[in-house]
Amino acid sequence: MLIAPAERGRGLARAVATAAVADALRSRLLPQWRARPKASRRVARALGFRELGSQLSVRLAGAATRTREGI
Length: 71
Hints:
Elements: H1 12-26, H2 38-46
């Protein structure tokens, strides 16, 4: 999720994430959190998430790219 700079620090991300996790658990899903920004990782830790690994995204040279019109 993205929080507008003027609204940060008010607990909005934590409130929305708490609701999303609760909904996922009610639906018997496994909540996951993927984030690079430190602030997002702090929220995840506050909700009990643990960092278990990392993710690397790579764009290969010559790989076809899709445009909105091509999807």
